[in-house]
# Entry
Amino acid sequence: MKKCFGIDIDGTVTRPDSMVPFLNKAFQLNLAYEDITEYELTPFVNISSEVFAEWFVKNEPAIYSGSKMADGAKQALAKWATLAELYFISARRNDLMEITETWFNRHELCYHHIELIGSHDKIDAAKRFGVDIFFEDKHDNAVAIATECGIPVILFDTPYNRKPVPEQVIRVNDWAEAEKWVENWLKG
# Structure
């Protein structure tokens, strides 16, 4: 029976620095990717969370359409598509499905299912789909999924997720490291 891989999209399959140019342009900033040391962005743009939320909803289509793929993601996912079911589970809202599918198709990215849940709480989706391993960039998501689902979670290292992690969360620097770890895991 094939394994089921749960995979986040933004900051995992897409480059985690994708938001920086949009933030700099919209808020007349000069942020570097390394400056983003926490997931919550409002402290960096110095506006209320309500105003930021409005801006974000308005700009999500352009941000998601313009996001670049993380180096090595396409190759790893193409390899895994023959070994496992690839379920992309994202906090994006469901009304962004067409934009998401268009991005996947434009980049010729393999997938079996895309689930846009509109929330960062991915535990229910991971359980519902019987995910055996998860790939994530958000620290608290990685820890919660690993703990609640009892599965390994590959956490892609970013400046905004460097808090300590439990043993079942495996921090990697890139898709090549993730691919190597998964290769060993599949043998076991």
